[in-house]
UniProtKB/TrEMBL annotation:
Top-level taxon of the source organism: Bacteria
Location of the ABC transmembrane type-1 domain: 70-261
Transmembrane domains' residue ranges: 12-30, 69-93, 105-126, 138-157, 188-207, 240-261
Residues in the signal sequence: none
Protein name: Carbohydrate ABC transporter permease
Lineage: Bacteria, Bacillati, Actinomycetota, Actinomycetes, Micromonosporales
InterPro entries noted in UniProt: BP-dep_ABC_trans_perm, MetI-like, MetI-like_sf
Pfam families, per database record: BPD_transp_1 (PF00528)
Length: 276
């Protein structure tokens, strides 16, 4: 009995430690944002927020462009997620269920694209975007982010569909169902956890992306928050409280989205990695 209680206590302590490590950076950003200059450079760091400094959040949203940056980031992330998942589902289904010439090569190419650093593609993509007038456009960022995240989305969903017995689809085809109906009525409900997992991957990729955003966007009003926060860093000084306040606000939507779908993430990633 004592061993059982000790095991339960140890697990609770371990969970609390992991939770503290995960939450502490977010808490420290909040504390730093609500600290005065004297507290920031004091010998002893302030461990609790000074709620009297809460105006820094109001100033960041009212005087600056933080609200617009967050909206731009949300548009880019949601657009990337919708396009990547929307195209990744039929692509993953085709790779899993259909036989066609070059299928193995296509799969390898999709995997190879994940090894290419974004910085390597900046110059050719910049020339391509300038030709098609996609510079200084949120739509351009959505397209380029979707192109980079689509391969991994398709491969994860392919693995998930591989685990679905083909007998279910054969029974549906015997009843006259077409491939599209089979995909939407049978496969998609069964791979819903994997779809949620890939949606998280696509959302976070676009939400945190910096290289393409800082290269392809010139208008400050179209910049996402990942670029806008970096603009606070100046040669003569950096408003640390404002930077931390905007960074805290930048983190909240991503955390909220993950908490909304987190119960599907682990099961979805596992389903996409195991066949049978």
């Amino acid at each position: 009995m004592r061993r059982f209680r000790f095991g339960v206590t140890a697990r609770i302590v371990a969970v609390l430690v992991v939770l503290g490590v995960a939450v502490f950076p977010l808490y420290w950003m909040f504390v730093t944002a609500l600290s005065s200059n004297s507290d920031l450079f004091a010998d002893q760091p302030r461990l609790t927020p000074d709620l009297g400094q809460f105006g820094v959040f109001v100033d960041a949203l009212a005087e600056g462009k933080a609200a617009g940056w967050l909206l731009n980031s949300l548009i880019i992330a949601v657009g990337t997620m919708v396009i990547s998942v929307g195209l990744g589902i039929p692509l993953g289904y085709a790779l899993s269920r259909f036989s066609f010439w070059g299928k193995a090569v296509l799969t390898v190419v999709l995997l190879f694209t994940q090894m290419l650093p974004e910085a390597l593609m900046v110059v050719p993509l910049f020339a391509l975007f300038r030709r098609f007038e996609l510079l200084d456009s949120l739509a351009g960022l959505v397209l380029v982010n979707s192109a980079f995240v689509l391969p991994i989305v398709a491969l994860i969903l392919k693995g998930a569909i591989d685990g679905i017995p083909k007998e279910l689809e054969e029974a549906a085809r015997a009843d006259g169902a077409r491939p599209f109906t089979t995909l939407t009525r049978i496969n998609m409900p069964l791979i819903a956890p994997s779809i949620a997992a890939t949606a998280v991957i696509a959302f976070f990729h676009a939400w945190n992306e910096y290289v393409f955003a800082v290269t392809f966007i010139f208008n400050p009003e179209l910049q996402p928050a990942s670029v806008g926060i970096a603009n606070f860093i100046g040669e003569l000084g950096t408003p640390i409280q404002t930077v931390m306040a905007v960074a805290f606000l930048f983190t909240l939507p991503a955390v909220a989205f993950y908490l909304l779908v987190q119960k599907y993430v682990v099961s979805g990633m596992t389903a996409g990695a195991v066949k049978g």
